[in-house]
Here is the input.
Amino acid sequence: MIPADFDYVAPESLDEAMSLLASDEDAKALAGGHSLIPMMRLRVSAPSKLVDLRRVPGLRGVERENGHLRVGAMTTHHEIDAAGIGLASAAAHTIADQQVRNRGTIGGTLAHGDRASDMPAVLMALEGSVTAMKPGGESREIAAGDLITGYWQTVLEPVELITEVRIPVLEGYGYAYEKFNRRQEDWAMVAVSAAVKVEDGVCADVRIGLTHMASVPLRATAAEEALRGQPANAESIAKAAEQAAEGTRPPTDLNSSADYKHHLARVLCRRALTGAISA
Ligand SMILES: Cc1cc2nc3c(=O)[nH]c(=O)nc-3n(C[C@H](O)[C@H](O)[C@H](O)COP(=O)(O)OP(=O)(O)OC[C@H]3O[C@@H](n4cnc5c(N)ncnc54)[C@H](O)[C@@H]3O)c2cc1C
Here is the structure.
Protein backbone atom coordinates (compact mmCIF):
# COMPACT_ATOMS: atom_id res chain seq x y z
CA MET A 1 0.00 0.00 0.00
CA ILE A 2 0.98 3.64 -0.38
CA PRO A 3 1.41 5.69 2.82
CA ALA A 4 -0.86 8.64 3.62
CA ASP A 5 0.62 12.05 2.71
CA PHE A 6 3.35 13.32 5.00
CA ASP A 7 5.99 16.06 5.17
CA TYR A 8 9.67 15.28 5.52
CA VAL A 9 12.38 17.29 7.27
CA ALA A 10 16.01 16.46 7.97
CA PRO A 11 17.22 18.80 10.75
CA GLU A 12 20.94 19.31 11.37
CA SER A 13 20.88 19.67 15.15
CA LEU A 14 19.24 17.97 18.10
CA ASP A 15 17.58 21.23 19.18
CA GLU A 16 16.01 21.64 15.76
CA ALA A 17 14.80 18.02 15.74
CA MET A 18 13.29 18.49 19.20
CA SER A 19 11.44 21.67 18.29
CA LEU A 20 10.10 20.14 15.08
CA LEU A 21 8.67 17.24 17.08
CA ALA A 22 7.30 19.58 19.75
CA SER A 23 5.58 21.85 17.20
CA ASP A 24 3.45 19.08 15.64
CA GLU A 25 1.86 16.38 17.80
CA ASP A 26 1.47 14.07 14.79
CA ALA A 27 5.15 14.30 13.76
CA LYS A 28 7.39 11.28 14.28
CA ALA A 29 11.12 10.72 14.43
CA LEU A 30 12.59 8.70 11.59
CA ALA A 31 15.71 6.62 12.32
CA GLY A 32 16.44 3.63 10.06
CA GLY A 33 12.81 3.54 8.86
CA HIS A 34 12.75 -0.26 8.89
CA SER A 35 9.76 -0.44 11.22
CA LEU A 36 8.12 2.94 10.75
CA ILE A 37 7.99 2.94 6.93
CA PRO A 38 6.40 -0.55 6.70
CA MET A 39 3.82 0.56 9.29
CA MET A 40 3.09 3.69 7.24
CA ARG A 41 2.69 1.60 4.11
CA LEU A 42 0.17 -0.57 5.98
CA ARG A 43 -1.46 2.66 7.28
CA VAL A 44 -1.07 1.40 10.84
CA SER A 45 0.81 4.66 11.36
CA ALA A 46 0.12 7.95 9.55
CA PRO A 47 2.43 10.70 10.86
CA SER A 48 1.92 14.19 9.45
CA LYS A 49 5.67 14.77 9.34
CA LEU A 50 8.82 12.66 9.50
CA VAL A 51 11.73 14.22 11.36
CA ASP A 52 14.74 12.36 9.99
CA LEU A 53 17.51 12.04 12.58
CA ARG A 54 20.20 11.01 10.07
CA ARG A 55 21.91 14.42 9.91
CA VAL A 56 21.76 15.16 13.63
CA PRO A 57 25.34 15.06 14.92
CA GLY A 58 26.42 13.17 18.05
CA LEU A 59 23.85 10.38 17.93
CA ARG A 60 26.07 7.66 16.51
CA GLY A 61 28.89 5.45 17.78
CA VAL A 62 30.01 3.33 20.74
CA GLU A 63 32.20 4.83 23.50
CA ARG A 64 33.41 3.40 26.79
CA GLU A 65 32.98 5.59 29.87
CA ASN A 66 33.31 4.68 33.58
CA GLY A 67 32.27 1.03 33.39
CA HIS A 68 29.56 1.73 30.81
CA LEU A 69 29.27 1.72 27.07
CA ARG A 70 27.51 4.75 25.62
CA VAL A 71 25.84 3.77 22.38
CA GLY A 72 24.35 6.59 20.30
CA ALA A 73 20.68 6.08 19.44
CA MET A 74 21.40 6.22 15.69
CA THR A 75 24.06 3.50 15.88
CA THR A 76 23.03 0.78 13.46
CA HIS A 77 22.66 -2.92 14.22
CA HIS A 78 25.62 -3.53 11.92
CA GLU A 79 27.81 -1.06 13.82
CA ILE A 80 26.89 -2.73 17.12
CA ASP A 81 27.64 -6.15 15.64
CA ALA A 82 31.04 -4.88 14.40
CA ALA A 83 31.88 -3.14 17.71
CA GLY A 84 32.45 -6.50 19.45
CA ILE A 85 30.67 -5.52 22.68
CA GLY A 86 29.65 -8.99 23.84
CA LEU A 87 26.01 -9.99 24.17
CA ALA A 88 24.68 -6.87 22.40
CA SER A 89 26.87 -7.63 19.37
CA ALA A 90 25.87 -11.31 19.37
CA ALA A 91 22.19 -10.31 19.30
CA ALA A 92 22.67 -7.54 16.71
CA HIS A 93 24.30 -10.09 14.42
CA THR A 94 21.05 -12.11 14.33
CA ILE A 95 18.78 -9.18 13.37
CA ALA A 96 17.27 -9.64 9.93
CA ASP A 97 19.64 -9.41 6.95
CA GLN A 98 22.62 -7.18 6.17
CA GLN A 99 20.45 -4.53 4.48
CA VAL A 100 18.24 -4.14 7.55
CA ARG A 101 21.27 -4.19 9.87
CA ASN A 102 22.85 -1.40 7.81
CA ARG A 103 19.87 0.91 8.38
CA GLY A 104 18.02 -0.19 11.53
CA THR A 105 19.18 1.51 14.75
CA ILE A 106 19.31 0.64 18.42
CA GLY A 107 17.28 3.75 19.33
CA GLY A 108 14.64 2.89 16.74
CA THR A 109 14.24 -0.70 17.86
CA LEU A 110 13.93 0.30 21.54
CA ALA A 111 11.46 3.13 20.85
CA HIS A 112 9.37 0.89 18.59
CA GLY A 113 8.63 -1.65 21.35
CA ASP A 114 8.01 -4.72 19.19
CA ARG A 115 7.65 -7.79 21.42
CA ALA A 116 9.66 -9.89 18.92
CA SER A 117 12.63 -7.48 18.68
CA ASP A 118 15.98 -8.77 19.88
CA MET A 119 17.54 -5.79 21.65
CA PRO A 120 14.99 -4.95 24.38
CA ALA A 121 15.41 -8.23 26.31
CA VAL A 122 19.18 -8.17 25.79
CA LEU A 123 19.37 -4.67 27.27
CA MET A 124 17.20 -5.87 30.17
CA ALA A 125 19.51 -8.82 30.88
CA LEU A 126 22.48 -6.44 30.83
CA GLU A 127 20.59 -4.03 33.12
CA GLY A 128 21.15 -1.18 30.70
CA SER A 129 19.13 1.99 30.21
CA VAL A 130 18.22 4.64 27.67
CA THR A 131 18.62 8.39 27.93
CA ALA A 132 15.53 10.24 26.71
CA MET A 133 15.60 13.98 26.02
CA LYS A 134 12.77 16.51 25.88
CA PRO A 135 12.68 19.85 24.06
CA GLY A 136 14.67 22.32 26.14
CA GLY A 137 17.36 19.73 26.85
CA GLU A 138 15.88 18.12 29.98
CA SER A 139 16.78 14.43 29.97
CA ARG A 140 15.94 11.35 32.02
CA GLU A 141 17.38 7.86 32.25
CA ILE A 142 14.93 4.99 31.81
CA ALA A 143 15.94 1.48 32.93
CA ALA A 144 15.55 -1.08 30.13
CA GLY A 145 13.05 -2.99 32.27
CA ASP A 146 10.77 0.07 32.56
CA LEU A 147 10.89 1.21 28.92
CA ILE A 148 8.43 -1.09 27.14
CA THR A 149 4.94 -1.33 28.61
CA GLY A 150 3.09 -3.35 25.95
CA TYR A 151 3.05 -4.28 22.29
CA TRP A 152 4.34 -1.17 20.43
CA GLN A 153 4.02 0.80 23.67
CA THR A 154 6.72 2.53 25.69
CA VAL A 155 6.91 5.10 28.48
CA LEU A 156 8.43 7.60 26.02
CA GLU A 157 6.41 10.77 25.55
CA PRO A 158 5.73 11.77 21.93
CA VAL A 159 8.17 14.70 22.23
CA GLU A 160 10.96 12.62 23.81
CA LEU A 161 13.89 11.33 21.80
CA ILE A 162 16.23 8.55 22.85
CA THR A 163 19.70 10.06 22.48
CA GLU A 164 21.81 7.20 23.80
CA VAL A 165 21.73 3.72 25.27
CA ARG A 166 23.88 2.86 28.28
CA ILE A 167 25.17 -0.68 28.65
CA PRO A 168 27.13 -1.70 31.75
CA VAL A 169 30.40 -3.51 30.94
CA LEU A 170 30.06 -6.90 32.65
CA GLU A 171 33.65 -7.86 33.54
CA GLY A 172 34.25 -11.60 33.96
CA TYR A 173 30.91 -12.76 32.50
CA GLY A 174 30.46 -15.28 29.71
CA TYR A 175 27.50 -14.74 27.43
CA ALA A 176 25.46 -16.42 24.67
CA TYR A 177 22.47 -15.53 22.51
CA GLU A 178 20.09 -18.23 21.27
CA LYS A 179 17.31 -17.33 18.83
CA PHE A 180 14.81 -19.60 17.14
CA ASN A 181 12.91 -18.60 14.01
CA ARG A 182 11.20 -20.38 11.16
CA ARG A 183 13.18 -18.65 8.43
CA GLN A 184 16.74 -17.47 8.64
CA GLU A 185 17.13 -13.71 9.21
CA ASP A 186 13.66 -13.33 10.68
CA TRP A 187 12.22 -12.06 13.96
CA ALA A 188 12.49 -14.40 16.94
CA MET A 189 9.75 -16.91 17.65
CA VAL A 190 11.60 -16.97 20.98
CA ALA A 191 15.10 -15.83 21.91
CA VAL A 192 17.08 -16.20 25.11
CA SER A 193 20.06 -14.09 26.14
CA ALA A 194 22.31 -15.25 28.97
CA ALA A 195 25.23 -13.68 30.84
CA VAL A 196 26.83 -15.72 33.62
CA LYS A 197 29.71 -14.95 35.98
CA VAL A 198 31.47 -18.08 37.23
CA GLU A 199 33.72 -17.85 40.30
CA ASP A 200 35.53 -20.93 41.65
CA GLY A 201 33.27 -23.22 39.64
CA VAL A 202 30.07 -21.62 41.00
CA CYS A 203 27.56 -19.42 39.14
CA ALA A 204 28.03 -16.21 41.11
CA ASP A 205 25.65 -14.15 38.95
CA VAL A 206 23.14 -15.12 36.28
CA ARG A 207 21.21 -12.82 33.92
CA ILE A 208 18.67 -14.24 31.49
CA GLY A 209 16.57 -12.20 29.05
CA LEU A 210 13.51 -13.59 27.22
CA THR A 211 12.26 -12.29 23.87
CA HIS A 212 8.68 -12.85 22.64
CA MET A 213 7.54 -14.63 25.81
CA ALA A 214 5.01 -11.85 26.59
CA SER A 215 3.94 -8.51 25.14
CA VAL A 216 7.03 -7.06 26.83
CA PRO A 217 10.62 -8.30 27.19
CA LEU A 218 11.18 -10.33 30.36
CA ARG A 219 13.88 -11.63 32.69
CA ALA A 220 13.68 -15.37 33.51
CA THR A 221 13.96 -14.65 37.22
CA ALA A 222 13.02 -18.16 38.45
CA ALA A 223 15.74 -19.74 36.29
CA GLU A 224 18.25 -17.05 37.34
CA GLU A 225 17.56 -17.72 41.03
CA ALA A 226 17.71 -21.49 40.51
CA LEU A 227 21.22 -21.26 39.03
CA ARG A 228 22.73 -18.50 41.19
CA GLY A 229 25.11 -20.07 43.74
CA GLN A 230 25.00 -23.49 42.05
CA PRO A 231 27.93 -25.35 40.44
CA ALA A 232 28.52 -24.31 36.83
CA ASN A 233 27.74 -27.70 35.33
CA ALA A 234 25.26 -29.36 32.98
CA GLU A 235 23.06 -30.72 35.77
CA SER A 236 22.49 -27.32 37.46
CA ILE A 237 21.88 -25.71 34.08
CA ALA A 238 19.32 -28.33 33.06
CA LYS A 239 17.43 -27.86 36.36
CA ALA A 240 17.46 -24.06 36.10
CA ALA A 241 16.44 -24.03 32.43
CA GLU A 242 13.31 -26.06 33.29
CA GLN A 243 12.06 -22.88 34.99
CA ALA A 244 12.74 -20.56 32.06
CA ALA A 245 9.07 -20.22 31.09
CA GLU A 246 7.80 -19.59 34.63
CA GLY A 247 5.55 -16.51 34.81
CA THR A 248 5.61 -15.91 31.05
CA ARG A 249 2.57 -15.22 28.84
CA PRO A 250 3.74 -15.79 25.27
CA PRO A 251 1.30 -14.83 22.51
CA THR A 252 -0.02 -17.59 20.27
CA ASP A 253 0.53 -16.52 16.66
CA LEU A 254 0.77 -17.92 13.14
CA ASN A 255 4.21 -19.38 13.86
CA SER A 256 3.63 -21.14 17.16
CA SER A 257 1.33 -21.80 20.08
CA ALA A 258 2.04 -20.48 23.55
CA ASP A 259 2.85 -24.06 24.66
CA TYR A 260 5.45 -24.43 21.95
CA LYS A 261 7.03 -21.13 22.98
CA HIS A 262 7.22 -22.39 26.58
CA HIS A 263 9.06 -25.43 25.29
CA LEU A 264 11.39 -23.28 23.17
CA ALA A 265 12.22 -21.03 26.13
CA ARG A 266 13.36 -24.02 28.19
CA VAL A 267 15.47 -25.51 25.38
CA LEU A 268 17.02 -22.19 24.33
CA CYS A 269 17.71 -21.27 27.95
CA ARG A 270 19.66 -24.49 28.47
CA ARG A 271 21.67 -23.83 25.31
CA ALA A 272 22.32 -20.16 26.17
CA LEU A 273 23.44 -20.95 29.73
CA THR A 274 25.69 -23.76 28.48
CA GLY A 275 27.21 -21.35 25.94
CA ALA A 276 27.66 -18.63 28.56
CA ILE A 277 29.52 -20.80 31.07
CA SER A 278 31.76 -22.26 28.37
CA ALA A 279 32.59 -18.85 26.83
C1 LIG B 1 12.61 -7.52 6.88
C2 LIG B 1 12.85 -7.06 8.29
C3 LIG B 1 13.29 -7.98 9.21
C4 LIG B 1 13.52 -7.59 10.53
N1 LIG B 1 13.97 -8.52 11.44
C5 LIG B 1 14.22 -8.14 12.71
C6 LIG B 1 14.76 -9.06 13.66
O1 LIG B 1 15.04 -10.22 13.36
N2 LIG B 1 14.96 -8.62 14.91
C7 LIG B 1 14.71 -7.31 15.30
O2 LIG B 1 14.93 -6.99 16.46
N3 LIG B 1 14.22 -6.42 14.41
C8 LIG B 1 13.98 -6.79 13.14
N4 LIG B 1 13.53 -5.86 12.24
C9 LIG B 1 13.26 -4.48 12.70
C10 LIG B 1 14.54 -3.64 12.59
O3 LIG B 1 15.43 -4.04 13.61
C11 LIG B 1 14.27 -2.14 12.73
O4 LIG B 1 15.48 -1.55 12.43
C12 LIG B 1 13.87 -1.65 14.11
O5 LIG B 1 12.73 -2.25 14.62
C13 LIG B 1 13.50 -0.16 14.10
O6 LIG B 1 14.64 0.60 13.98
P1 LIG B 1 14.71 1.77 12.95
O7 LIG B 1 15.99 2.47 13.25
O8 LIG B 1 14.50 1.26 11.59
O9 LIG B 1 13.50 2.72 13.46
P2 LIG B 1 12.35 3.44 12.63
O10 LIG B 1 11.59 2.48 11.82
O11 LIG B 1 12.89 4.65 11.94
O12 LIG B 1 11.45 3.95 13.86
C14 LIG B 1 10.72 3.04 14.65
C15 LIG B 1 9.94 3.82 15.72
O13 LIG B 1 10.83 4.39 16.69
C16 LIG B 1 10.73 5.81 16.72
N5 LIG B 1 12.10 6.31 16.90
C17 LIG B 1 13.15 6.04 16.09
N6 LIG B 1 14.28 6.55 16.64
C18 LIG B 1 13.91 7.15 17.79
C19 LIG B 1 14.63 7.84 18.82
N7 LIG B 1 15.96 8.01 18.77
N8 LIG B 1 13.94 8.31 19.88
C20 LIG B 1 12.59 8.14 19.97
N9 LIG B 1 11.86 7.49 19.04
C21 LIG B 1 12.52 7.00 17.96
C22 LIG B 1 10.08 6.21 15.40
O14 LIG B 1 9.37 7.44 15.50
C23 LIG B 1 9.15 5.02 15.17
O15 LIG B 1 7.98 5.17 15.94
C24 LIG B 1 13.30 -6.23 10.92
C25 LIG B 1 12.86 -5.29 9.97
C26 LIG B 1 12.63 -5.70 8.68
C27 LIG B 1 12.18 -4.67 7.67
